[in-house]
Amino acid sequence: MKHDFSQRSTQAELMDTEPLGFAAFHAYLCDLTLINICTLAYRPTLRWLRLVVGKSQQPVSVIDIGSGGGDMLRRIWKWAGRHKINVDLVGADLNPWSKQSAEKTTAHGAPIHFETSDIFDFDPERRADFIISSLFTHHLTDEEVIRFIQWMDAHAVHGWFINDLHRHPVPHFLIKWFTRFFGFNRLVQYDAPLSVARAFVRADWHRLLIAADIPMERVRITWYFPFRYGVACRCTEMFSNNRKQE
Hints:
Layout: H1 14-17, H2 22-38, H3 43-53, E1 60-65, H4 71-82, E2 87-93, H5 96-104, E3 112-116, E4 128-134, H6 142-155, E5 156-165, H7 169-181, H8 186-197, H9 202-211, E6 219-224, E7 228-234
Parallel strand pairs: 1-2, 1-4, 2-3, 4-5
Antiparallel strand pairs: 5-7, 6-7
């Protein structure tokens, strides 16, 4: 199917519409983890955390929205362990299979808690030092992205970070043939290029942030190889003098 890359596709992904049992959903998430590794998906978020957390020895709390199989949080846990940073990590996902899948692949005793929840039903008083999302916002409509940005800005103490795809024909073509060549399951083959078509360009992020009433002086939009955008927002002054906003 041809896509008009001048605007976001509104076509729904199978992941969001097709009923799946746990085994099929877990296999889907495992395939996504492999793709994330191959496409350097963790790098933007980890780079941002290194910048904002710095060498602080204070405990750090992070909520990952749309956490899926939990692979982003496991990477953060390993990074924090290498730097002797005490972390409290929470993964929240609307799909109940995500919690089961994430717990299945996360080491016992890891400081990571997974929960099934609609973030907009969170306790209004619930906060975290940092809120992140990775490959989540392209599943949302523009109106939902605006609401999500406002929600993060209200619940993050120090900052939030969105890591998502750059809508462009090159990654669309590459991921389409990559998933076919390496024999990923049919759901991944269908959804992976569609994710790119549902994703964003820089102008989209400017428009959405303005609509969410986020002052642009608090935000930095960064392009990362290969074909990703990171949207970083500072909510307050960082709680350590050695921290800096990307």
